[in-house]
Design goal:
alpha+beta, two-stranded antiparallel sheet, 8 strands
Length: about 190
């Protein structure tokens, strides 16, 4: 009788352990599914919220005295420049979603401010700051146009760190070895 009771208790203990393992497995699967759904929804939201046919970004790079043009249209980014004939087409979803994430954040939803603080200086700094111009088009008509100077002669400007990431992202897209310089950047959207 004693052996039967011990065996019954062992069987119940093993059964309870298996139930706990099974419930833990289901919980982990559910969390993984939630993460996958969030990423998918996020990507869909970026595409839907933009609701534009074309986005053009003009980036005046003062270091190279060149204007780079980033044109997003039909799931591609065409990068060209004004002076040297540079031309590159990006179809990598990681770069496209990262670009759209920043456009949505600062220019469509405007969830983040570009400039956090402007303080008038007692002196003037002589400079020619980089400039980013973003233009959105729907059915060939300009929907919005915003120009941002990355600095000013009469002001000390504190920019949103996420905007500075966007600026660095654009700057790195035109580098010849972009594959190496972008893969390890924290601002890239993970898909």
């Amino acid at each position: 009788m004693k052996n039967t009771t011990i065996i019954t208790y062992l069987f119940l203990l093993i059964f309870l352990i298996l139930i706990i393992i099974f419930i833990s497995f289901l919980y982990v699967q559910k969390e993984d599914m939630k993460k996958a759904q969030f990423i998918t929804v996020t990507n869909k939201e970026i595409s839907i919220k933009l609701n534009l046919d074309n986005i053009e970004i003009y980036y005046w790079d003062t270091n190279e005295a060149n204007i780079y043009i980033f044109e997003y249209s039909k799931g591609k980014i065409n990068i060209s420049d004004e002076y040297s004939g540079y031309n590159k087409i990006l179809e990598d979803k990681l770069y496209i979603q990262t670009l759209l994430k920043y456009i949505n954040l600062f220019y469509i939803d405007k969830k983040e401010k570009i400039v956090l603080k402007r303080t008038k200086l007692n002196y003037m700094q002589s400079s020619e700051p980089p400039i980013i111009t973003v233009i959105g088009y729907k059915e060939g008509k300009e929907v919005f146009k915003e120009v941002t100077e990355i600095g000013a002669e009469e002001y000390d400007i504190e920019f949103n760190p996420k905007f500075l990431e966007f600026y660095e992202f654009l700057d790195n897209l035109v580098e010849d070895n972009k594959e190496n310089s972008l893969k390890n950047r924290s601002y890239l959207l993970t898909l």
